[in-house]
Amino acid sequence: MTSSFEALLPSTERALLHRIAVAQTEGRAPSFVAGVVREGKAVWFGARSCVDGHAPDAGTQFRIGSITKVFTAVLVMRMRDEGLLGLDDPLEKHLPGTGVGEVTIAQLLSHSAGLAAETPAPWWERSSGALRPEPADVLGERPMPHPAGRLFHYSNPGYTLLGSLVEAVRGVSWEEALRVGILEPLGLTRTTLRPVAPHAGGWAVHPWADVMLSEPLEDLGIMAPAGALWSTVGDLGRFAAFLAEGDDRVLCRASVEEMRVPAAPPAAGDAEGGYGLGLQLLRRDGRTLVGHTGSLPGFLAGLWVSVEDGVAAVAFANATSGPLVPTVAADLVRIVAEAEPRIPEPWRPLSEAEADPELLALTGPWYWGTSAYGLRVNPGGGVTLEPLRGVGRRARFRPLPEGGWIGLDGYYLGETLRVVRRPDGAVSHLDLGSFVFTREPYGPKDAVPGGVDEAGWRGL
């Protein structure tokens, strides 16, 4: 028996609408819009406005601020996948003359390059990009207040440099690289560098009175890769689906997963999150969210994806401050994930190709010292190694072309698991980063580091 649950339940929809209605009212936002994506499909949209009968729709543009950085990071990762650069390359190799060329591309992506958070005055978000025509103009006289690679320090100039890097390597403008590399393949027709009607206006709401002031709209120039894009709930919903699954037309799944791996520790005093390669990481309500927040004068935005739940949410408001837009986006994910938990795929046996007898012979219990672990075969030739009781280090592994497997998460991320055989071809043990896993705990003939007491096991 199968059932279709593509649409949300009415009770879930009401809870989502209630959340954004409270946010719009308490945050005093001129308008508030949000959408939810489940399993790659848009399943809900909601809007609240202070103007009766004129609420924005899913195609109305809002400025998304620093969510733009995720697009820039995807462009850089795409160039890495094409072999045009390496993440450990110094910036100077591809973009000479910045004065901070010793920092690496990975450090720029993860905000660990030690660069300043902002440009020299005047504040770049409320001034013309013509004041900063070159990379040197966004760096100032003291571009690196921190040592490179030592800590997380959010840097808008860092993403300006990444935008300039894209232009230098591609030989086209950042905007053109964005259009060809991301927007057209994913069908993001309403994501643009400049506003295209219908779009929301940006407002500041007086802190002590219910009156509004129009915010200026500046051309940010070379700062655009750090935060200039306009987009819609519909477009960012499709982009969120891409961040969950990848798309070979833009960036393969493995590279998108790499972006989600913590690359920099949380900032001091922030125990909830961290930063990957262009993606913010948030631990909230018992689940891990990946995405980004955004703000520019007159606008607030949030995009969060729970890959495990298959749920993503996007939220916008056209107010400089007030509504907690990223928090609302996270709440929308929670509401759907808790009210309508993901229905697992039906169990299916492995294919004939995956049911390799030699691989099946490796399954079952293994011992690291006296700690019992189980090895399980996954679809695609991967394996999972997990403790059978108590606490321990669980990890998934994917197969390597040359044999063995590489760790995908946890303590063993990036570590190699391999089978070690005796001269006669029989399996001796598993080697995982020098840790030896044997079929018996301290078997007398096993290759246990340091050897095994010849007297064997004994009682008191």
Protein architecture, described:
25% of the residues lie in helices and 22% in strands. The chain is built from twelve helices and 19 strands. The termini are far apart.
Strands across the major sheet, in which order? 12-13-14-15-16-17-18-19
Share in helix: 25-40%
| Intertermini distance | 58 Å
Kindly provide the radius of gyration, computed on alpha-carbon positions and rounded to a whole number of angstroms. 25 Å
Mean pLDDT: 93
Question: How many individual β-strands?
Answer: 19
The largest β sheet comes out as: 8 strands, antiparallel
Low-confidence stretches: none
Counting DSSP H or I runs of 4 or more residues, the number of helices is 12
Classify the secondary structure makeup into a structural class: alpha+beta
Shape: globular
Strand content: 15-25%
